[in-house]
Amino acid sequence: PNRIQNGGAEALASALRTNRSLRGLDVVYNQIQQTGIAAFHQALVSKDAESNRTLLFLPLEQFGVPHNELHREEIRLALRRNAALMGKEEVEKALHPAHLREILSVYRVGG
Questions:
Q1: What are the Cα distances from residue 17, in Å, to 80, 98, 103?
Q2: Which of 24, 25, 42 shows the shortest CA–CA distance to 34?
Q3: DSSP string, 43-95
Q4: Buried (b) or exposed (e) across 79-102, using 16+ Cβ within 10 A?
Q5: In the chain, N or C terminus with fewer CB closer than 10 Å?
Q6: pTM (2 decimals)?
Q7: pLDDT tens column, 69-108
Q8: Beta bridge partners of 57
């Protein structure tokens, strides 16, 4: 964990509002509390034209930190919406790029 906390989460969420290439962001166990989760929620769920429509993967688990479950569920729905907008083949390429599949296959067979 990087311990980016709420300030880092708010900065990342702000960047997500304009970023159109990032497909995944892992912020697990970074001491993000409700304020930070709310910033991600706003970046993904807001009805304005700047809400993110490209992010597909955003795990938010924070060890021992309670969160607003409605925000988390709406974030999950927004990620599903983004996937539906992108299409199945594009989502597969984004979440499982060929170069990573090759690395994983070599790693799994030990050589």
A1: 17, 27, 32
A2: 42
A3: HHH-SSTTS-SS--B-----TT----HHHHHHHHHHHHHHHHHH-HHHHHHHH
A4: beebbeebeeeebeebeeeeeeee
A5: C
A6: 0.81
A7: 899 899 999 999 999 999 998 888 888 777 666 666 666 6
A8: 24
